[in-house]
Specification:
Blueprint (H helix, E strand, L loop, with lengths): L2 H8 L7 H10 L2 H11 L1 H4 L8 E3 L12 E9 L7 E9 L8 H22 L12 E7 L31 E4 L5 H4 L5 H9 L6 H16 L3 H4 L3 H14 L2 H13 L1 H4 L3 H17 L1
Parallel strand pairs: 3-4, 4-5
Antiparallel strand pairs: 1-2, 2-3
Helix pairs in contact: 7-10, 8-11, 10-11, 10-13
Length: about 290
């Protein structure tokens, strides 16, 4: 599906699906996936080949949780001598409260990913001596308001004596709490993703705070060349959707002026300009 049709598909869905669908849409773009890892796993990005990333179409979310969260699984080469493949498992968490069982859930989902590999090897009669499970980088993308402290682990679910801690499965989790992360950290990446997160962070903020964040983005875009603006097309669509679905009519007017100011930077085609108008009309119908 091309970007134009992808955006139109949002307009056919209920308003309540926006947080989940928009996050999956953004992170399915390798540039945004790179931006996410720059923010929460900067030591890894140089070793991962995002040019060859591909999404694995599978999910491990129980049906009764489907409306609250979803997941994404990506496969990409690790830049070592053998160019082994590594998986990135992203759990999109939209619940307003912190889930103490997150560490268990992550491990449960990762084991299911590995079990899919095992089942394939068994069906293909691959000798066990040749089995090599792929490493998994677990990521939590959290859009709620609360602070997660401590971060997800199995140990926090156990009242366990010190001598027994070494028997608890240990793994690190990369975590982005969008609403509680500082702007400085979100903007560690120079890619559009970080700037979009500074606005998603303020989706429920007062109008003045949201418009101030939009003004900071405007200043940043003012320094871009037309060539650099091309990478902002999806970000622009996302920004429109964020304002139309999550913000007030007044913010929509501010966004229209914002787009007008940077029209040349974005190099919008007639079709894209028409899409923006369709989004505006769709929003008016729903309010």
């Amino acid at each position: 599906m091309n970007p134009f049709d992808e955006v139109l598909s949002f307009l056919r869905e209920p308003l309540g699906t926006f947080p989940d669908r928009s996050a999956r849409w953004l992170l399915s773009n390798p540039d945004n996936l790179y931006g996410l890892l720059e923010i929460i796993g900067s030591d890894l990005v140089g070793s991962l080949d995002f040019r060859r990333v591909r999404r694995v179409n599978t999910t491990f979310i129980a049906d009764n949780l489907r409306k609250q969260e979803s997941d994404l699984v990506f496969l990409l080469p690790f830049r070592d001598a053998d160019e082994m493949e590594v998986m990135i498992y992203i759990l999109l968490e939209h619940q307003s409260t912190v889930d103490p069982a997150m560490g268990f859930r992550l491990l449960f989902y990762m084991v299911q990913i590995w079990d899919q590999q095992r089942q394939r090897w068994v069906s293909e009669n691959v000798p066990k001596g040749q089995w090599r499970f792929r490493p998994i980088i677990p990521v939590v993308f959290y859009t709620g308001e609360q602070v997660w402290q401590p971060l997800p682990s199995l140990e926090t679910l156990m009242d366990i004596p010190g001598p027994l801690v070494r028997f608890v499965p240990q793994f690190e989790t990369l975590f982005l709490g969008v609403k509680t992360e500082s702007d400085a950290n979100l903007l560690k990446t120079e890619r559009p993703f970080g700037w979009l997160m500074t606005l998603l962070k303020r989706e429920d903020a007062e109008a003045g705070e949201f418009s101030a964040a939009l003004e900071r983005l405007s200043e940043h875009l003012g320094a871009l060349t037309e060539g650099e603006g091309g990478s902002w097309k999806q970000a622009l669509y996302y920004l429109y959707l964020l304002v139309f679905y999550q913000r007030s009519v007044e913010d929509r007017d501010i966004l229209e002026r914002f787009i007008s100011e940077h029209h040349q930077t974005f190099s919008l085609s007639e079709q894209e300009a028409s899409l923006m108008q369709s989004m505006a009309e769709h929003y008016i119908e729903q309010v």
